[in-house]
Design brief:
The chain has 17 helices and two strands. With 319 residues, it is mainly α. It has one domain. It has a two-stranded parallel ribbon. Helix 8 crosses helix 15, helix 11 packs across helix 12 and helix 15 packs across helix 16. The protein is globular and about 55 Å long. It starts with a helix and ends in a 12-residue tail after the last helix.
Length: 319
Amino acid sequence: MKRTIMENRKKLTMEEMNTIKSIYKMADLILVRFLYMHKNQVWNSPEGQAITIYFRDISEVFMLGKFCRGRLQRWVYSTHRLHGFLPELDQATLSRAKYAELLGALDSYYLSVNESDTCMASIPDSPEPWDLRLPLTRCRRHAMCDTALLQSPSIGYSLAHRALNLILRRLDRRCYIVSEARDLVLIDQLCAGMYREAVYIARRGYFARDMFMEHVAICSMMGYEEFHRASWYRRVASFVDNIGCATESNNFLQTSQRVRLNKEYPSHILEIIQNRLRSHLMNDRCHEHVITLSMVMMAQAIRHSLFHLKKKYSGKFNK
Protein backbone atom coordinates (compact mmCIF):
# COMPACT_ATOMS: atom_id res chain seq x y z
CA MET A 1 0.00 0.00 0.00
CA LYS A 2 2.90 2.36 0.72
CA ARG A 3 4.37 1.61 -2.70
CA THR A 4 0.95 2.16 -4.28
CA ILE A 5 0.86 5.75 -3.04
CA MET A 6 4.45 6.36 -4.21
CA GLU A 7 3.59 5.18 -7.73
CA ASN A 8 0.14 6.71 -8.15
CA ARG A 9 0.01 10.16 -6.56
CA LYS A 10 -1.19 11.69 -9.83
CA LYS A 11 -3.97 9.12 -10.20
CA LEU A 12 -5.37 9.30 -6.65
CA THR A 13 -7.57 11.92 -5.04
CA MET A 14 -6.59 13.16 -1.60
CA GLU A 15 -9.45 11.20 -0.05
CA GLU A 16 -8.27 8.00 -1.73
CA MET A 17 -4.68 8.55 -0.59
CA ASN A 18 -5.86 9.12 2.97
CA THR A 19 -7.92 5.92 2.80
CA ILE A 20 -4.87 3.91 1.72
CA LYS A 21 -2.70 5.57 4.37
CA SER A 22 -5.21 4.72 7.08
CA ILE A 23 -5.13 1.07 6.00
CA TYR A 24 -1.36 0.67 6.12
CA LYS A 25 -1.05 2.70 9.34
CA MET A 26 -3.54 0.34 10.97
CA ALA A 27 -1.53 -2.62 9.67
CA ASP A 28 1.66 -1.10 11.14
CA LEU A 29 -0.11 -0.63 14.47
CA ILE A 30 -1.30 -4.25 14.51
CA LEU A 31 2.25 -5.44 13.82
CA VAL A 32 3.72 -3.27 16.59
CA ARG A 33 1.15 -4.55 19.06
CA PHE A 34 1.81 -8.13 18.02
CA LEU A 35 5.56 -7.70 18.50
CA TYR A 36 5.00 -6.15 21.94
CA MET A 37 2.53 -8.81 23.10
CA HIS A 38 4.87 -11.59 21.98
CA LYS A 39 8.19 -9.89 22.71
CA ASN A 40 9.58 -12.82 24.71
CA GLN A 41 8.76 -15.28 21.94
CA VAL A 42 10.03 -12.91 19.25
CA TRP A 43 13.54 -12.70 20.62
CA ASN A 44 13.76 -16.34 21.73
CA SER A 45 12.79 -18.11 18.50
CA PRO A 46 13.88 -17.96 14.84
CA GLU A 47 10.26 -17.61 13.75
CA GLY A 48 9.78 -14.62 16.03
CA GLN A 49 12.97 -12.92 14.90
CA ALA A 50 11.92 -13.35 11.28
CA ILE A 51 8.72 -11.37 11.93
CA THR A 52 10.72 -8.22 12.71
CA ILE A 53 11.81 -8.06 9.04
CA TYR A 54 8.32 -6.98 8.03
CA PHE A 55 8.38 -4.00 10.37
CA ARG A 56 11.59 -2.55 8.94
CA ASP A 57 10.11 -2.21 5.47
CA ILE A 58 11.74 0.92 3.99
CA SER A 59 13.94 -1.00 1.58
CA GLU A 60 11.15 -3.43 0.66
CA VAL A 61 8.76 -0.57 -0.19
CA PHE A 62 11.26 1.05 -2.55
CA MET A 63 12.55 -2.19 -4.09
CA LEU A 64 9.27 -4.04 -4.81
CA GLY A 65 9.45 -5.40 -8.33
CA LYS A 66 8.13 -3.36 -11.23
CA PHE A 67 5.27 -5.03 -13.09
CA CYS A 68 6.54 -7.28 -15.85
CA ARG A 69 4.63 -9.44 -18.29
CA GLY A 70 5.99 -12.63 -19.82
CA ARG A 71 9.20 -12.98 -17.80
CA LEU A 72 8.02 -16.29 -16.33
CA GLN A 73 6.96 -17.73 -19.69
CA ARG A 74 10.38 -19.26 -20.32
CA TRP A 75 10.15 -21.32 -17.12
CA VAL A 76 6.40 -22.00 -17.06
CA TYR A 77 6.75 -23.88 -20.36
CA SER A 78 10.18 -25.37 -19.67
CA THR A 79 11.07 -28.92 -18.71
CA HIS A 80 12.95 -27.61 -15.65
CA ARG A 81 11.83 -29.81 -12.76
CA LEU A 82 11.47 -28.51 -9.22
CA HIS A 83 9.89 -31.83 -8.23
CA GLY A 84 8.43 -34.94 -9.82
CA PHE A 85 4.76 -33.90 -9.81
CA LEU A 86 4.74 -31.03 -12.32
CA PRO A 87 3.08 -33.02 -15.16
CA GLU A 88 0.23 -34.04 -12.86
CA LEU A 89 -0.15 -30.49 -11.58
CA ASP A 90 -0.22 -29.05 -15.09
CA GLN A 91 -2.90 -31.54 -16.14
CA ALA A 92 -4.78 -31.13 -12.83
CA THR A 93 -4.77 -34.90 -12.40
CA LEU A 94 -2.97 -34.88 -9.04
CA SER A 95 -5.55 -35.81 -6.41
CA ARG A 96 -6.39 -33.42 -3.61
CA ALA A 97 -5.41 -36.06 -1.07
CA LYS A 98 -1.99 -36.51 -2.65
CA TYR A 99 -1.39 -32.77 -2.72
CA ALA A 100 -2.43 -32.46 0.94
CA GLU A 101 0.01 -35.28 1.72
CA LEU A 102 2.81 -33.47 -0.12
CA LEU A 103 2.10 -30.25 1.79
CA GLY A 104 2.42 -32.16 5.05
CA ALA A 105 5.68 -33.87 4.12
CA LEU A 106 7.87 -30.76 4.39
CA ASP A 107 10.76 -32.62 6.01
CA SER A 108 11.12 -34.66 2.81
CA TYR A 109 11.89 -31.53 0.79
CA TYR A 110 14.08 -28.45 0.84
CA LEU A 111 13.12 -26.28 2.80
CA SER A 112 11.69 -27.63 6.11
CA VAL A 113 9.71 -25.43 8.50
CA ASN A 114 12.52 -25.12 11.03
CA GLU A 115 15.13 -24.51 8.33
CA SER A 116 12.99 -21.78 6.78
CA ASP A 117 12.56 -20.02 10.13
CA THR A 118 16.31 -20.22 10.75
CA CYS A 119 17.09 -18.78 7.32
CA MET A 120 14.52 -16.00 7.72
CA ALA A 121 16.01 -15.11 11.09
CA SER A 122 19.47 -14.91 9.48
CA ILE A 123 18.42 -12.19 6.99
CA PRO A 124 19.07 -9.30 9.44
CA ASP A 125 22.63 -10.63 9.86
CA SER A 126 23.43 -9.02 6.51
CA PRO A 127 23.88 -5.24 6.79
CA GLU A 128 21.11 -2.89 5.74
CA PRO A 129 21.80 -1.14 2.42
CA TRP A 130 22.93 2.45 2.93
CA ASP A 131 22.12 3.42 -0.67
CA LEU A 132 19.37 1.58 -2.55
CA ARG A 133 20.78 2.75 -5.88
CA LEU A 134 23.97 0.71 -5.48
CA PRO A 135 24.36 -2.83 -6.91
CA LEU A 136 23.50 -5.79 -4.74
CA THR A 137 26.21 -7.23 -2.48
CA ARG A 138 26.91 -10.74 -1.17
CA CYS A 139 24.68 -11.76 1.74
CA ARG A 140 26.48 -12.76 4.91
CA ARG A 141 27.27 -16.44 4.58
CA HIS A 142 25.18 -19.04 6.37
CA ALA A 143 26.26 -22.61 5.63
CA MET A 144 22.87 -24.30 5.98
CA CYS A 145 20.83 -21.59 4.23
CA ASP A 146 23.31 -21.13 1.39
CA THR A 147 22.81 -24.82 0.62
CA ALA A 148 19.13 -25.42 1.42
CA LEU A 149 17.78 -22.39 -0.44
CA LEU A 150 19.43 -23.56 -3.66
CA GLN A 151 18.36 -27.20 -3.50
CA SER A 152 15.50 -29.11 -5.11
CA PRO A 153 13.12 -30.92 -4.91
CA SER A 154 10.63 -28.62 -3.25
CA ILE A 155 6.86 -28.24 -3.49
CA GLY A 156 4.13 -26.35 -1.66
CA TYR A 157 5.28 -24.52 1.45
CA SER A 158 8.91 -25.57 1.04
CA LEU A 159 8.90 -24.10 -2.48
CA ALA A 160 7.19 -20.91 -1.31
CA HIS A 161 9.61 -20.41 1.57
CA ARG A 162 12.64 -20.86 -0.66
CA ALA A 163 11.30 -18.05 -2.84
CA LEU A 164 10.35 -15.88 0.15
CA ASN A 165 13.81 -16.19 1.68
CA LEU A 166 15.53 -15.23 -1.57
CA ILE A 167 13.10 -12.39 -2.33
CA LEU A 168 13.41 -10.83 1.13
CA ARG A 169 17.18 -10.98 0.94
CA ARG A 170 16.96 -9.17 -2.36
CA LEU A 171 14.38 -6.56 -1.31
CA ASP A 172 15.20 -6.01 2.36
CA ARG A 173 18.99 -6.36 2.44
CA ARG A 174 19.79 -5.85 -1.26
CA CYS A 175 22.00 -8.92 -1.25
CA TYR A 176 22.39 -12.24 -3.07
CA ILE A 177 23.58 -15.76 -2.25
CA VAL A 178 25.25 -16.82 -5.53
CA SER A 179 25.17 -13.69 -7.70
CA GLU A 180 22.66 -10.96 -8.49
CA ALA A 181 21.83 -12.52 -11.87
CA ARG A 182 21.82 -16.15 -10.74
CA ASP A 183 19.61 -15.44 -7.73
CA LEU A 184 17.11 -13.67 -9.99
CA VAL A 185 17.00 -16.64 -12.37
CA LEU A 186 16.35 -18.93 -9.42
CA ILE A 187 13.54 -16.68 -8.16
CA ASP A 188 12.04 -16.78 -11.66
CA GLN A 189 12.21 -20.57 -11.66
CA LEU A 190 10.68 -20.88 -8.19
CA CYS A 191 7.86 -18.45 -8.95
CA ALA A 192 7.15 -20.25 -12.24
CA GLY A 193 6.70 -23.43 -10.23
CA MET A 194 4.51 -21.60 -7.72
CA TYR A 195 2.42 -20.20 -10.57
CA ARG A 196 1.84 -23.70 -11.91
CA GLU A 197 0.76 -24.84 -8.44
CA ALA A 198 -1.55 -21.84 -8.04
CA VAL A 199 -3.19 -22.64 -11.40
CA TYR A 200 -3.60 -26.28 -10.30
CA ILE A 201 -5.27 -25.24 -7.01
CA ALA A 202 -7.57 -22.85 -8.87
CA ARG A 203 -8.53 -25.52 -11.40
CA ARG A 204 -9.33 -27.92 -8.53
CA GLY A 205 -11.74 -25.44 -6.91
CA TYR A 206 -9.36 -23.44 -4.69
CA PHE A 207 -9.42 -26.29 -2.19
CA ALA A 208 -6.10 -25.24 -0.56
CA ARG A 209 -6.75 -21.56 0.09
CA ASP A 210 -3.76 -20.85 2.30
CA MET A 211 -1.27 -22.41 -0.11
CA PHE A 212 -2.85 -20.72 -3.12
CA MET A 213 -2.70 -17.28 -1.54
CA GLU A 214 0.83 -17.76 -0.21
CA HIS A 215 2.11 -18.53 -3.71
CA VAL A 216 0.38 -15.49 -5.21
CA ALA A 217 1.25 -13.11 -2.35
CA ILE A 218 4.96 -13.95 -2.35
CA CYS A 219 5.61 -13.81 -6.09
CA SER A 220 3.45 -10.73 -6.59
CA MET A 221 6.19 -8.83 -4.74
CA MET A 222 8.44 -9.39 -7.77
CA GLY A 223 5.89 -7.86 -10.14
CA TYR A 224 5.08 -10.95 -12.21
CA GLU A 225 1.80 -10.07 -13.92
CA GLU A 226 0.97 -13.74 -14.41
CA PHE A 227 -0.13 -13.78 -10.76
CA HIS A 228 -2.47 -10.79 -11.16
CA ARG A 229 -5.78 -12.25 -12.30
CA ALA A 230 -9.09 -10.53 -11.65
CA SER A 231 -10.81 -13.92 -11.19
CA TRP A 232 -8.28 -14.87 -8.52
CA TYR A 233 -8.78 -11.61 -6.64
CA ARG A 234 -12.55 -11.99 -6.78
CA ARG A 235 -12.31 -15.52 -5.41
CA VAL A 236 -10.01 -14.45 -2.56
CA ALA A 237 -12.43 -11.63 -1.70
CA SER A 238 -15.16 -14.27 -1.44
CA PHE A 239 -13.14 -16.09 1.25
CA VAL A 240 -13.59 -13.10 3.58
CA ASP A 241 -16.83 -12.90 5.56
CA ASN A 242 -18.82 -9.82 6.56
CA ILE A 243 -16.71 -9.17 9.68
CA GLY A 244 -13.41 -9.46 7.82
CA CYS A 245 -12.50 -13.02 8.80
CA ALA A 246 -11.30 -15.88 6.62
CA THR A 247 -10.26 -19.47 7.19
CA GLU A 248 -9.01 -22.52 5.32
CA SER A 249 -11.55 -24.45 3.24
CA ASN A 250 -13.45 -27.29 4.89
CA ASN A 251 -12.48 -29.52 1.99
CA PHE A 252 -8.76 -29.12 2.65
CA LEU A 253 -9.13 -29.54 6.42
CA GLN A 254 -11.12 -32.73 5.96
CA THR A 255 -8.67 -34.05 3.38
CA SER A 256 -5.74 -33.28 5.68
CA GLN A 257 -7.52 -35.14 8.47
CA ARG A 258 -7.89 -38.25 6.33
CA VAL A 259 -4.23 -38.06 5.30
CA ARG A 260 -3.12 -37.61 8.91
CA LEU A 261 -5.06 -40.65 10.03
CA ASN A 262 -3.31 -42.78 7.43
CA LYS A 263 0.24 -41.59 8.00
CA GLU A 264 2.59 -40.67 10.84
CA TYR A 265 4.12 -37.20 10.72
CA PRO A 266 6.92 -35.55 12.72
CA SER A 267 5.55 -33.87 15.84
CA HIS A 268 5.87 -30.26 14.61
CA ILE A 269 4.04 -31.05 11.34
CA LEU A 270 1.37 -32.94 13.29
CA GLU A 271 0.94 -29.89 15.52
CA ILE A 272 0.31 -27.64 12.51
CA ILE A 273 -2.38 -30.00 11.18
CA GLN A 274 -3.97 -30.40 14.61
CA ASN A 275 -4.10 -26.64 15.14
CA ARG A 276 -5.89 -26.17 11.82
CA LEU A 277 -8.38 -28.89 12.64
CA ARG A 278 -8.91 -27.54 16.16
CA SER A 279 -9.56 -24.09 14.73
CA HIS A 280 -12.12 -25.58 12.35
CA LEU A 281 -13.85 -27.72 14.99
CA MET A 282 -14.18 -24.72 17.31
CA ASN A 283 -15.85 -22.77 14.50
CA ASP A 284 -13.01 -20.27 14.46
CA ARG A 285 -13.91 -17.96 11.60
CA CYS A 286 -10.58 -16.15 11.74
CA HIS A 287 -7.39 -17.95 10.74
CA GLU A 288 -4.50 -15.49 11.21
CA HIS A 289 -2.38 -16.74 8.34
CA VAL A 290 -5.26 -16.89 5.84
CA ILE A 291 -6.42 -13.39 6.82
CA THR A 292 -2.89 -12.00 6.47
CA LEU A 293 -2.47 -13.51 3.01
CA SER A 294 -5.85 -12.23 1.86
CA MET A 295 -4.85 -8.70 2.98
CA VAL A 296 -1.59 -8.93 1.02
CA MET A 297 -3.45 -10.09 -2.07
CA MET A 298 -6.00 -7.27 -1.84
CA ALA A 299 -3.18 -4.74 -1.46
CA GLN A 300 -1.53 -6.19 -4.57
CA ALA A 301 -4.86 -6.03 -6.42
CA ILE A 302 -5.16 -2.29 -5.67
CA ARG A 303 -1.57 -1.62 -6.74
CA HIS A 304 -1.96 -3.56 -9.98
CA SER A 305 -5.32 -1.99 -10.83
CA LEU A 306 -3.94 1.51 -10.35
CA PHE A 307 -0.90 0.64 -12.44
CA HIS A 308 -3.18 0.01 -15.42
CA LEU A 309 -5.41 3.01 -14.72
CA LYS A 310 -4.51 5.59 -17.38
CA LYS A 311 -5.81 8.68 -15.61
CA LYS A 312 -7.25 9.87 -12.33
CA TYR A 313 -10.46 8.02 -11.50
CA SER A 314 -13.42 10.30 -10.83
CA GLY A 315 -15.17 7.94 -8.43
CA LYS A 316 -14.33 6.92 -4.89
CA PHE A 317 -13.14 3.76 -3.21
CA ASN A 318 -15.88 1.59 -1.82
CA LYS A 319 -14.97 1.65 1.84
